[in-house]
Design goal:
The complex is a heterodimer of chains A (about 180) and B (about 950). With about 180 residues, chain A is an all-alpha fold. Chain A folds into two domains: about 1-115, no CATH class; about 115-185, Arc Repressor Mutant, subunit A. Chain A has helices spanning about 5-10, 15-40, 50-60, 70-100, 110, 120-135, 135-145, 150-160, 165-185. In chain A, α1 (about 5-10) packs across α2 (about 15-40), α7 crosses α9 and α8 (about 150-160) crosses α9 (about 165-185). Chain A is globular, with a radius of gyration of 17 Å. Chain B has about 950 residues and is mostly helical. In chain B, strands 1-2-3-4-6-5 form a six-stranded antiparallel beta sheet, with helices on one face. The relative contact order of chain B is 0.04. The chains are: A mainly alpha (about 180), B mainly alpha (about 950). Chains A and B meet through α1, α2, α3, α4 and α7 of A and α1, α3, α8, α12 and α37 of B.
């Protein structure tokens, strides 16, 4: 029960290994939760990422008071975990489309967490990787905002940059990614 | 691309976006890019992308909006039809959803505002709640209220509201843009009050009054305020339950600045028209000062409980004080367009009566607020007419009582999780008590303490008024520096250093709660310096001020500094001749909190033990403090993994809480539940059960039954009873809880309880061969739930399973087929919990072919890996396999079956027609070979 609080404290002290442990704890819990929900609720149910992440938060942290910066670390990890789950699902779907397979395939958690049609997650993920090479901060900002559901300002707080800078970075990263994805099309 | 080049690209891009015209932009780019064609190309591409990107990535994938099921169309754009309305253009976006201008054609042609609520809310509930208020809403007819015409659901299932179209801007923006005088602002405000009064008379509470919901439009050049969104907050409000607590909080964090203490209460159930009076008070505050009473940043940084605490307990600075502070500490930001001298004049003009009016409207205790919006409007009008107002300055006696009340607040804090900051509250009181008394408050007679506190308070108030009023222009010019405050204080109090230091301390505390942390810290340090100068380091006041400073550092998130500061405070206190004091006990607990934060549990435990011992000797009457500290100790023991010591502490802890809280207090119930949870973890059923039963009794008997907490106790009891092989035992209790929740007319809450109850019923239904009485009980439970949620297929399934268990096969079949009809649309092979029991029901009815067909579908459904790993699905699938395997083989295991079996072996595609296996099979046997077949099926299905 104390684990996560402790890990969060270690993360806020800059412990890199703790960050990995946090991510894997959040990732496991998210997957587990999505899987058990899918089984228990009736099929066809669409899971809402927001609800999933919040429930994960509740399960891992309960109603203990958590400092805002620690909460930021949690959401950063949740954003990364959710990105992995969704991108995995998107890749699986893309493989099935191209591989000529028919519609029967096993249902993964990510399939029931539905992304908006307008964004090609696989392309976005590749573009994000590229951006991260040049500019890890901006890529992280996008992850926090898009996959983590934080506002630009909150994401800025997690990254330790001012609101104005965060806004500027956001505009740039958005344009850069848009451009990159279109280039690929 | 190298990083330097990437950074350069970003710089140019951002700067180019700042250019106002295309020509300006081109000139700028020509200048910075020069001959670097590649760079220019990249910048141009990015700028073009920026222009074309539209809504790309705008809403997070996390936003409920983005999680629409694939088949649903995207966000509503111009031209989309929603019911009778055609969307013309989008007006705005917000946390709640989006607003559009739309055209209604029938029965009248008019333009309306259409507000579409985000997905993620329960559409049916939202609309039901709206319908409940529709008649009342229709009765509202007031020129300052925007009418709400209609509500419905879009094709994508999102609720929407149709309202009178108001073309206006936020009242605060309007006032600032037009630089309205205080008088003009008050006149607008009076109209808003009258509108709210009208609604209140029709029985409608707004619940979400804030500048964004009070728009100003011009009618023939005359500004007219319009209150929008009446009835919507109520329809879209969701109750806090343990499940939605966090989600709710994220919505709640949007505008906690305007939320009344009544609404911020965890239950938030008991809200009446006076919640709007509070919000009107905040609106008036903002109209007068340009800012809200509590700093939005401070609220945002605080943990959830702390935000609630601030709203419910912290006294905001008076508007005049706030206006003054803001004009100095953040010139030009908060006071839009106001010059400093103007700000000072403003501060003077609102001091006194307007302060009193605002503070009366914003009283924490709603019985002390204005009774009606009309009373508030009339008092503002009296002020404008230069008549004496009803509101007055709070009396000293009242304030002292409030301090004492606030000291009791930690009762509300969660039992085992007591944030260090809650301790800060108690400290704030004692700081006042002690600072000028220079004596240990514990040893002062209570009357004496009150007197001293009152004196301190009076002095502090007086000096604060003084600091604001004495030559404010000059003070502002010096930007409120510490030296000046001190000089002014000295001028007034002569060489009474103690008073000066105490005053600085109390001023610091006020600044701290207003969010001016840096300034507060400087004042604390100055206060410290004076105390030290006067009495040296070893002085109780130095210790007390250090502790206050430590709490401030804690709220800045600087734990390391706070730890040092607390340690120093403790060191000084220990060196005093009589160190056994409450002060020390409190500081020890604070330090323990900081240590706990960084995982140093061992030391924290020692400190807390000492703190408790000290409290017991020094102030045995303060039982609550002892209890809270004991809980912290328990918490640290648990966090530190010292289970045995924790277990030893439990009886004592329980006894302490029983002494500290009145019998029947819900807080006691929460403590009991928490402790029971620990017993449960150790599988100590006998320990857990009485605690849970007592807690449940308390929750149900409370005047405002805490059904949410009752659910937690119920879940605990369910576990206890289940382990005692009495899975149905909890159901009658849950039925009772549901009835209580329904009496409270709180639908979402009742729905949550119903879910819990339904789950208990399923836990009985899924077990074969239980006594019939248990199934009957579960049946009664599920029927109680279902009056509420007739469309819930999980509950319907449980009903069907129970009918099967009770031998009502015809009913079971029709119920389960209804479930399957629904579930097959979701998943082609249906849901295992339906299919398993359909198969078994057919079997019992002697319909072998149908039973086998259902079994085939069950196996196909079980290929879904979610179901394959789910314990319940596997359990019921196993039961069906066993039943059909045994009885099927015995009664009709003809050659046909064997043929199919052979076909399956030779052709992988036959897996889809998976046959009966010979002989009886237990679920365990079933698992392995069948899974192999399932896997084969999965591999081949692509080829089919």
């Amino acid at each position: 029960m104390s684990d996560i609080t402790q890990i969060l404290n270690q993360v806020s002290q800059g412990d890199r290994q703790a960050a990995e442990r946090l991510l894997s704890a959040v990732y496991d819990e998210l997957r587990h939760l999505a899987a058990s929900k899918l089984a228990r609720e009736k099929p066809g149910q669409t899971l809402q990422p927001t609800a999933l992440v919040h429930e994960t938060y509740l399960r891992l942290l309960g109603d203990r008071p958590v400092r805002w910066d620690n909460r930021g670390h949690f959401f950063a990890a949740a954003a990364e975990a959710m990105r992995r789950i969704l991108v995995e699902a998107a890749r699986r779907k893309a493989r099935l489309r191209h591989g000529g397979g028919r519609k029967r395939c096993t249902l993964g958690e990510g399939d029931a967490i539905v992304a908006p049609d307008s964004v090609d997650l696989v392309a976005l993920d590749e573009a994000l990787e590229k951006l991260a090479n040049d500019d890890p901060t901006k890529a992280q900002l996008v992850k926090l905002r898009y996959f983590g559901g934080l506002t630009v300002e909150q994401a800025g707080e997690v990254l330790g940059i001012s609101r104005a800078t965060a806004d500027r970075y956001w505009r740039f990263a958005r344009a850069w990614l848009y451009n990159e994805i279109r280039k690929g099309e | 691309m190298s990083n330097a080049r990437h950074d350069r690209l970003e710089e140019i891009f951002s700067a180019a976006l700042q250019c106002e015209t295309a020509a300006e932009r081109a000139a700028f780019l020509d200048g910075v890019c020069g001959a670097d064609v590649e760079l220019r190309g990249q910048v141009d591409a990015l700028l073009a992308a920026h222009d074309r990107a539209g809504e790309f990535l705008d809403s997070p994938i996390f936003d409920a909006d983005a999680t629409v099921v694939r088949s649903l169309p995207g966000p509503e754009g111009p031209g989309t039809r929603i019911g009778r309305y055609k969307i013309l253009q989008s007006i705005g976006e917000g946390g709640f959803g989006s607003v559009h201008m739309a055209e209604q054609e029938e029965p009248v042609r008019r333009k309306v505002a259409l507000k579409i609520i985000k997905l993620g809310m329960d559409t049916k509930q939202v609309i039901a709640r709206f319908e409940a208020e529709r008649q009342a809403l229709a009765l509202m007819d007031h020129p300052n209220i925007a009418r709400v015409f209609d509500a419905g659901a879009t094709e994508t299932g999102r609720p929407y509201f149709v309202m009178e179209l108001v073309r206006g801007i936020k009242i605060t923006e309007y006032c600032d843009q037009n630089r309205l005088s205080t008088r003009a602002r008050l006149e607008l405000f009076i109209q808003v009050c009258r509108a709210v009064q009208h609604a209140h008379q029709k029985g409608i509470i707004h619940r979400d009054l804030k500048p964004g919901n009070v728009l100003v439009t011009l009618h023939d050049g005359v500004p007219v305020p319009k209150v929008i969104d009446f009835g919507i907050a109520k329809a879209t409000s969701q109750r806090l339950t343990d499940k939605t607590l966090f989600t709710e909080f994220r919505q709640f964090i949007g505008t906690p600045e305007y939320m009344s203490p009544d609404q911020a209460a965890i239950s938030g159930l008991d809200v009446d028209t006076r919640t709007d009076i509070y919000s009107l008070g905040v609106l008036l505050y903002e109209l007068l000062t340009g800012t809200t009473p509590f700093d939005a940043q401070t609220l945002r940084r605080a943990p959830d409980d702390e935000i609630r605490r601030i709203i419910r307990e912290v006294e905001p600075p008076k508007p005049s004080t706030r206006a003054h502070t803001l004009s100095q500490s953040r010139p030009g930001t908060a006071m839009a367009g106001l010059r400093q001298a103007e700000a000072a004049a403003l501060s003077r003009s609102i001091r006194g009566e307007l302060d009193w009016i605002v503070m009366k409207a914003m009283e924490k205790d709603r019985t002390r607020r204005y009774d009606t919006a009309s009373d508030l409007a009339n008092d503002v009008q009296r002020y404008l007419n230069n008549e004496p107002v009803l509101a007055g300055p709070p009396s000293t006696c009242y304030r002292v009582r409030k301090f004492v009340c606030r000291n009791r607040a930690p009762v509300l804090a969660s039992a085992l999780v007591v944030a260090a900051l809650v301790g800060g509250l108690a400290m704030a009181t004692t700081f006042y008590l002690r600072a000028s008394a220079e004596r240990d408050a514990a040893q002062l007679a209570k009357a004496r303490a009150d007197q001293e506190a009152a004196r301190s308070q009076r002095i502090a108030d007086f000096l604060q008024e003084l600091l604001v009023s004495t030559d404010p222009d000059q003070a502002i010019a010096h930007n409120l520096d510490v030296a000046r405050i001190e000089a002014t204080a000295r001028e007034v109090f002569g060489e009474d250093h103690a008073t000066v230091a105490a005053t600085l301390g109390s001023r610091a505390l006020q600044l701290q709660s207003a969010g001016a942390l840096e300034l507060a810290e400087r004042l604390y340090r100055e206060s410290l310096r004076i105390w030290r100068e006067r009495g040296g380091d070893n002085n109780i006041n130095v210790a007390a001020t250090l502790r206050a400073l430590g709490i401030l550092q804690l709220s800045k998130g600087d734990d390391r500094a706070a730890e040092q500061t607390f340690r120093e405070s403790i060191r000084i206190t220990r060196a005093l001749p009589n160190p056994e004091s409450i002060t020390l006990a409190e500081t020890l607990a604070l330090l323990a909190g900081v240590l706990g934060n960084r995982g140093a549990y061992a030391e924290a435990v020692d400190l807390l033990r000492e703190s408790i011992r000290m409290r017991r000797t020094a102030a045995p009457q303060q039982r609550l403090q002892v209890a809270i500290t004991s809980s912290s100790l328990a918490n640290m023991l648990m966090l530190g993994g010292r289970e045995t010591e924790f277990a030893e502490l439990i009886p004592e802890l329980l006894e302490t809480w029983r002494q500290a809280l009145p019998a029947g207090s819900p807080a006691l119930g929460r403590v009991l539940t928490e402790l029971a949870r620990f017993h449960l973890n150790r599988n100590d059923l006998a320990g857990a059960e009485p605690l849970l039963r007592e807690a449940l009794e308390i929750f149900m008997a409370a005047p405002d039954p805490s059904v949410t907490h009752a659910c937690a106790a119920l879940r605990g009891l369910a576990v206890v009873l289940e382990r005692r092989d009495d899975p149905a035992g909890v159901i009658p209790l849950a039925i009772q809880a549901l009835e209580v929740a329904r009496r409270g007319e709180n639908e979402p809450l009742a729905r949550d309880v119903a879910k819990v109850l339904a789950n208990f019923c399923w836990n009985v239904a899924k077990l074969p061969r239980r006594p019939e009485a248990e199934y009957q009980t579960a049946l009664r439970g599920i029927e109680t739930c279902r009056t509420q949620e007739p469309e819930d297929y999980a509950q319907l399934n449980t009903l069907g399973v129970l009918q099967y268990r009770l031998g009502q096969y015809a009913d079971a079949l029709s119920t389960l087929r209804r479930c399957d009809e629904f579930n097959s649309q979701q998943n082609e092979h249906g849901h295992p919990t339906d299919m398993a029991f359909i198969a078994m029901t057919y079997q019992r009815l002697g319909l072998g072919d149908e039973a086998r067909a259902a079994l085939v579908r069950l196996r196909q459904a079980m290929q879904n890996e979610q179901f394959a790993v789910d314990e319940d699905c596997r359990r019921v699938a196993g039961e069906a396999e066993a039943l059909l395997g045994t009885e099927g083989a015995r009664s009709e295991g003809g050659p046909e079956g064997r043929e199919v079996g052979a076909a399956m072996m030779s052709s992988p595609s036959g897996a889809l027609f998976l046959p009966r296996e010979r002989g009886a099979r237990t679920p365990a046997q079933w698992r392995s070979p069948a899974r192999r077949v399932l896997r084969a099926g999965a591999a081949t299905c692509g080829a089919l």
